[in-house]
Structure formats: structure tokens, C-alpha cells
Amino acid sequence: MCTIRNICVILLLSLSPASVWAQTISEPEPTSAEHSKLVQQPSPSTEAPGSFQSRPQTIPQTAPTAPPDKSPDDTSYGKQTKRIFGVAPNFAAVNAGESLPPLSAKGKFKLASEDSFDYSAFVWVGILSVQNMGLRAYPEFGHGMAGYSRYYWHEFVDSVSGTYFTEAIIPSIRHQDPRYYTMGQGGFFRRMGYALSRVAVTRTDSGGTSFNLSEIGGNAIEAGLANLYYPSEERGPRKTLENWGAQMESAALNNIFKEFWPDIRKHVLRPK
User: Fold this and answer.
1) Cα–Cα distances in Å, from 167 out to 72, 149, 163, 220?
2) What b/e readout covers 33-54, taking b as 16+ CB neighbours within 10 angstroms?
3) What sign results for the dihedral spanned by CA atoms 58, 60, 63, 68?
4) What total number of domains does the chain contain?
5) What's 256's DSSP letter?
6) 202 near 116, Cβ under 8 Å?
7) pLDDT given for residue 261 in this prediction
8) How far apart are CA 253 and CA 268, in angstroms?
9) Does residue 247 sit within a domain?
10) Cβ distance 80 to 61 under 8 Å?
């Protein structure tokens, strides 16, 4: 119903100026000779009774006006927000089609700090700790509050170290941009492929593209460092590879959600 109503409004706005224009053209203005005759016509008070004399009518010409352009709003395509659902940090997402200056090393560390120590990060770590404890992901940590505290600080260190390696340390060394540049348009599978490819390909500080060593290498370093503070049963090459794979999976899912977050806002949440 809304679509039909919008179409009708557009048609009315587009046809109305055209009809005024056509009416103006079909009624030409009087020539100078006709104008002089028009001036000499007697007024109705001086005309003889019973006589009828038509006088030409002039219609002022008005140029056709186009319907006003629709101003852009916060639901335009590919526009990101600082938080997802008003809670989860989304500071590293860039609007579609937007070109930003390169981040300095200080800016990259600031971005990593905002993501690591945002209030929502502590809540999210707490949720993951409850989940891992319920699944007995690391039986060596035990149960109760003591076990939960072990789950919590291990999860928190994993999160912070991974964020700093992928968003600050490696990007500063390799001159890579840790931000996610939204594609924002195209088919679903095309955008999905783009989001997944950003795990392996990233933008450089100079505006080019390169192998995403920040994401892949940064998560590998985080997985290797976990061997220093996890129990001996949770160390070794196999555990390190599992940890790295989990981090890469999380990075891919984050990219997908960032890519389609503007669409979720526009078509599902529909902010006013």
C-alpha cells in the first residue's frame, strides 16, 4: 500500500508541472497589435446593452517545477553507526563510498583501546566465560566463582591481546588500515564474498590493497602467546591452531555483520 501511494505521489508531482506547461503553451500571449486593440476595448460600463464582446485572457507563464529532491537521512545505504544495536562497539566500520585519511600509529592504538576497554567488552567477556564454563571448555579451571574468575581473565587477555595485535601493533608495523570499509551495494552473495575476502585482503595506509597480515598474523601471534598462560593440557601446536582458527572465524563473522548492519537497521529496525 505504501509503495502504491508513493508511486501515485510521484506521478502527480511529475504530471502536474507538465500539464501547467502544456496549458501555457496552448494559450499564446497577444501580439503588440492585439494588445493595442485590447486596450481600446470599452469597459463593461460603456458597452451598449445586450452587446457581448469577448476579450482575450492572458495566463501568466510559469516554468515547470521539479519535485523536491529527497534529502539523505541516517538510513541511506551503507551508513554505519558507532554501535551495533546501541551496545556493541562498531568504531572500526567505515561508511560505504567514504574515503578517510590514513590512521596514524597513535590512532590505531586508540582504536584498539576503545574496542578493548569499552564497557560492552567486559559484558561480552562475562557472557563468553559463562558459556565456556557451562560447556566445560577448560576443565582445569574448575567450578564456582574461582573457576569463573579463571575463565574470565583468560578470555579477557585473549580478547585484548588479539585486538591490539590485529588493530594496532601489526597495522602500525605493516602500514595497514585496520578499519572495515563497507561495500554497501550489490547482490547479497557479492557483498558476502567481499566481507569474507577482507579477512585476507586489507587496505594500506597509502590507499592500496595488500595481504591482510594484520588479521591473519595478529591472530596467529595471539594464539601462540596463549601457550604462556593456559594450562599445559591446553597448549601445543594443535591447541594453537584451534585457537587461531576460532579467532579467524570470529573475524569473518564480524566482517559479515558489519557489512549488513546498515541493511538490518534500514529494513528491520527502521529507525525514525
Assistant:
1) 32, 27, 6, 14
2) eeeeeeeeeeeeeeeeeeeeee
3) negative
4) 1
5) H
6) no
7) 95
8) 19
9) yes
10) no
Distance, C-alpha 263 to centroid of its chain? 8
Cell numbers standing for residue 13? 508531482
Are the C-beta atoms of 243 and 163 separated by less than 8 Å?
Answer: no
Strands 180-181 and 93-94: parallel
User: CA-CA distance, 180 to 221, in Å (whole number)?
Assistant: 21
pLDDT(91) > 50: yes
Beta bridge partners of 84: 88
Q: What is the mean pLDDT of the chain?
A: 81
Residue 7 lies in a domain: no
Read off the C-alpha cell for 117.
Answer: 576497554
The Cα 4–Cα 142 span in angstroms is: 62
Q: What is the pLDDT of residue 57?
A: 52
Whether 144 is in a domain gets the answer: yes
Alpha-carbon span 38 to 44, nearest angstrom: 13
Rounded Cα gap, residues 42 and 53, in angstroms: 10
Condensed to tens digits (0 to 9), the pLDDT of residues 206-219 reads 999 999 999 999 99
Instruction: Look up the domain containing 165 and give its range.
Output: 83-269
118/88 Cα distance (integer angstroms): 9
Task: Mention every residue, 6+ apart, whose C-beta is less than 8 A from residue 73.
Answer: none
Bigger pLDDT: 70 or 41?
A: 41
- Nearest CA to 214 out of 271, 171, 157 is that of 171
Residue 151, domain member (yes or no): yes
Phi, psi of 75 (to 5 degrees): -105, 15
Distance of alpha carbon 5 from alpha carbon 12, whole angstroms: 11
The pLDDT value given to residue 17: 40
